[in-house]
Amino acid sequence: MRVLFATLLLAGSALSAGAAEKIKVLVIDGQNNHNWQQTTPVLKKLLEGTDRFTVEVATSPPANKKEEMEKFRPELAKFDVVVSNYNGQPWGKALNDDFEKLLKDGKIGFVVVHAANNAFGGWKEYNQMIGMGWRGKTGGDRLFLNDEGKAQTVKSGEGDGSGHRYTGPFAVTVRDGDHPVTKGMPMEWQHVRDELYDNMRGPIENVKVLATAFSKGTKVHEPMIWTVSYGKGRVFHTPMGHDANAMRCWGFAGTLTRGTEWAATGAVTLPLPKEFPTAEKASPIPEK
Q1: Across 40-99, where does the E strand assignment appear?
Q2: In this structure, are residues 210 and 145 in contact, taking their beta carbons and an 8 Å threshold?
Q3: Would you tell me which of 213, 263, 284, 286 could form a disulfide with 109, CB atoms 3.0–4.6 Å apart?
Q4: Is the CB of residue 246 less than 8 Å from the CB of residue 194?
Q5: Contact 269, 257 (CB under 8 A)
């Protein structure tokens, strides 16, 4: 009888796990100084390829359509997490208000990819959400790590504004191996050619740096994966992913998918891709 009960219990657990509801993702694109027409399909494919997510895309009106932008208001409450591939004109007030409230209340999560951190420089709450992003030298403080791995700050107005003073392949160094997103990652792994963002600026409040990359341009370790607490909401932020080729990296794929799951749920069940890169070798995803 005990054996039968244990068998039924295991079968029931497997059934529950298999029937787990997928995480609903909304990708927002439509304006960007990067090629969102090529990168959004890659983001969608990487997420859906895990079988953990369903993905819908909301494409904004084109630039200089102010009246249409005011009406652009995807139903955010239908989703568990928003992934931004957007860097363009301000959204309308209604969408801004929806987003702030849902994220602050912990009803949705937020994922910031690459140039999405260039957006909305004048939106105070957005700057709080992303922690730090592409801003001029007066756009907030700067955070980096020195060779000893200690956090250093530069005050707003001092030093350089944001840039990518190095573009090419680079190593990502994990600084917090206990976080659900980075747990199990090699402490160092090679990323394919990408823009290495530097001098990220912002309020840098409630920010936890999970990984950095040494920039040959700035000669310091720049934040490359971090999280932000915004009210009850979880934000996952990576400046990796300049173009489709930069996204076709198993390191980026594992970072994106696990970061998205964490932003939506606060936990990570997804394993690292078996092809995840190592300290010695990058692991590009073949284009198909």
Answers
A1: 53-59, 81-84
A2: no
A3: 263
A4: yes
A5: no
Cβ(226)–Cβ(237) below 8 Å: yes
The neighbouring-strand residues paired with 55 are: 25
Between CA 195 and CA 129 the distance in angstroms is 22
List the end-to-end C-alpha distance of the chain, in Å, as a whole number.
Answer: 52
Q: Are strands 233-238 and 109-113 parallel, antiparallel or unpaired?
A: parallel
| Confidence label for 64 from pLDDT (cuts 50, 70 and 90) | confident
Please write down the HEC assignment for all residues of 199-241.
Answer: CCEECCCCEEEEEEEECCCCCCEEEEEEEEEECCEEEEEECCC
Strand (E) or helix (H) holding 212: strand 207-214
Question: What is the pLDDT at residue 166?
Answer: 98
CA distances from 140 to 90, 96, 204, 235 (A): 20, 21, 8, 19
Alpha-carbon distance 94 to 92, whole Å? 5
Is 0.85 topped by the overall pTM? yes
Pairing mode, strands 109-113 and 207-214 = unpaired
In tens, the pLDDT along 245-257 reads 999 999 999 999 9
**Amino acid, single-letter form, for residue 85:** N
Which residues are paired to 57 by β-bridges? 27
Kindly list the structural domains of the chain, giving each domain's residue range(s) and its CATH number in brackets, ordered by start: 22-265 (3.40.50.880)
